[in-house]
Amino acid sequence: MFDALTYGIPESAYHRAMRIALSDLGLAFSIEHDLPVTFRGQLVGKYRADLIVEEKIIVEIKTAPRIVEVHVNQLHGYLKISQLQVGLLLNFGPEPTFNRYFLKSRTSPVR
User: Fold this and answer.
1) DSSP annotation string for 76-91
2) Pairwise CA distance, residues 47 & 53, whole Å
3) How many domains does the chain have?
4) In CATH, what number is assigned to the domain containing residue 55?
5) Which pairing describes strands 86-91 and 57-62: parallel, antiparallel, or unpaired?
6) β-sheet with 29-39: strand ranges across
7) DSSP 18-56
8) Residue 48 falls inside a structural domain
9) What is the pLDDT of residue 8?
């Protein structure tokens, strides 16, 4: 996808391209999926994940110069709230990076 689109285009174009690629693969996905944040059973806010694939994997797309801690923390927040186990952080910046993260638990490592 990166080779076809190159660096410097808007993040929204990568979102649309990812949806086309997932559809071509026959994978089910939801876009801009709302993840409710609750406190003591009350809704206090929401996260909005870029994509959830096959109801198993959260995909977060960035076009930043590099991945920084706030991006990783955002994805970990999505994983915690959704209770999904796997997240992908895809950065289509000047040097593309594609990282997989796992939900922290008492028995499994973060990466």
Assistant:
1) HHHHHHH--SEEEEEE
2) 16
3) 1
4) 3.90.320.10
5) parallel
6) 29-39, 42-53, 57-62, 86-91, 97-102
7) HHHHHHHTT--EEEEEEEEEEETTEEEEEEEEEEEETTT
8) yes
9) 83
Per-residue pLDDT tens digits for 4-42: 777 888 999 999 999 999 999 999 999 998 999 989 999
In this prediction the pTM is 0.83
SS3 66: coil
- Reference 99, options 5, 24, 64; nearest CA is 64
48 close to 32: Cβ distance less than 8 angstroms: yes
Q: Write out the H or E segment, with its range, that includes residue 98.
A: strand 97-102
Residues in the chain, overall count = 111
Range of the domain at 80: 2-102
Tokens of 57: 């994997």
Backbone angles phi, psi at 19, to 5 degrees: -65, -40
pLDDT at 108: 46
pLDDT in tens, 81-104: 999 999 999 999 998 999 999 987
Phi/psi of residue 58, nearest 5 degrees: -90, 130
Residue type (1 letter), 15 = H
